[in-house]
Amino acid sequence: MTFELNGLPTRTKKNRSSGITLAIDKGYSIRQTEDFLETSEPYTDIVKLGWGTSYVSTNLENKLAAYRNAGIPVYMGGTLFEICLLRNQLDDYLRYLDHHDIGFIEVSDGTIRLSQKRKLDLIADLCKNFTVLSEVGSKNPENILAPYQWVDMIKSELDAGAWKVICEARESGTVGMFLPNGEVRSELIEEITHHIPSNDLLFEAPQKDQQIWFLKKFGANANLANIAPNEVITLETLRLGLRGDTLFDFYIPQNGVGQPIK
Amino acid sequence: MTFELNGLPTRTKKNRSSGITLAIDKGYSIRQTEDFLETSEPYTDIVKLGWGTSYVSTNLENKLAAYRNAGIPVYMGGTLFEICLLRNQLDDYLRYLDHHDIGFIEVSDGTIRLSQKRKLDLIADLCKNFTVLSEVGSKNPENILAPYQWVDMIKSELDAGAWKVICEARESGTVGMFLPNGEVRSELIEEITHHIPSNDLLFEAPQKDQQIWFLKKFGANANLANIAPNEVITLETLRLGLRGDTLFDFYIPQNGVGQPIK
Amino acid sequence: MTFELNGLPTRTKKNRSSGITLAIDKGYSIRQTEDFLETSEPYTDIVKLGWGTSYVSTNLENKLAAYRNAGIPVYMGGTLFEICLLRNQLDDYLRYLDHHDIGFIEVSDGTIRLSQKRKLDLIADLCKNFTVLSEVGSKNPENILAPYQWVDMIKSELDAGAWKVICEARESGTVGMFLPNGEVRSELIEEITHHIPSNDLLFEAPQKDQQIWFLKKFGANANLANIAPNEVITLETLRLGLRGDTLFDFYIPQNGVGQPIK
Question: Cβ contacts of residue C69 below 8 Å, gap of 6+?
Answer without folding.
Answer: none
